[in-house]
Amino acid sequence: MADSTQNGPMPGAAGGGAVQFLMANKLDTAMWISRLFTVYCSALFVLPLLGLHEAASFYQRALLANALTSALRLHQRLPHFQLSRAFLAQALLEDSCHYLLYSLIFVNSYPVTMSIFPVLLFSLLHAATYTKKVLDARSSNSVPFLRNFLEKLNANQQNILKFIACNEIFLMPATVFMLFSGQGSLLQPFIYYRFLTLRYSSRRNPYCRTLFTELRIVVEHLIMKPSCPVFVRRLCLSGISFISRLAPNVA
């Protein structure tokens, strides 16, 4: 009995390991909490269980929380702020800077469901990764049902990233439509175009660039069929040529 008492797990030891891990990584923990809050607010916007008026409020909260997360991540990547052109150029290479800009573009605009999905899914993926680290710090076998969910999420990560890239691309014509429908500002399509060029040139996430290529291949395959009307083919080829000219050069 004495041996089993000394060698057995101490009450709260597993939870203590998780707490120590969280306290040792305060900035990562802060981003984890803000990402979980982003997921919570995004879900309540997509599923307006508390009413449509509250849903619009959750839309803004989700984007503000995402802006906070992006700012913290950018500070983590570039800790020494400098008011210089070189620092700005370096910051624009970071994905966190892209989504800080993204949040600022849409936070005061008319709520668009399509615009919340990238924020929701990126936050969910990053929060899942850190949650797994917290569970590992707690115990290697803790909360098995949550671990199974996290593993399934990780297995579908590539499909989720492609879906996010698809949202990023089709939000461009959506901002133009919002402008003509009176729900967007004149500057929004131009600023969003800048965001899209940054995503296209991203070093860490090539999915936007890959999806542009895949969409072009699919459209060209369809319009080259004999059944496709000539005017539709010409219109699509002109559109492809125009979009290709707008695409930034990627090293």
From TrEMBL:
- InterPro entries reported for this sequence: PER33/POM33_regulator, TMEM33/Pom33
Subcellular localization: Membrane
- The keyword Lyase is assigned to this record: no
Membrane protein topology class:
Multi-pass membrane protein
According to its UniProt entry, one GO biological process term is: membrane organization
Task: For this UniProt record, give its keywords in alphabetical order, as a comma-separated list.
Answer: Membrane, Transmembrane, Transmembrane helix
- Name the residues that span the membrane: 32-52, 99-125, 169-193
Q: Name one GO cellular component term.
A: membrane
Family from the record: Belongs to the PER33/POM33 family.
Q: What is the official name of this protein in its record?
A: TMM33 protein
Q: Which organism is it from?
A: Erithacus rubecula (European robin)
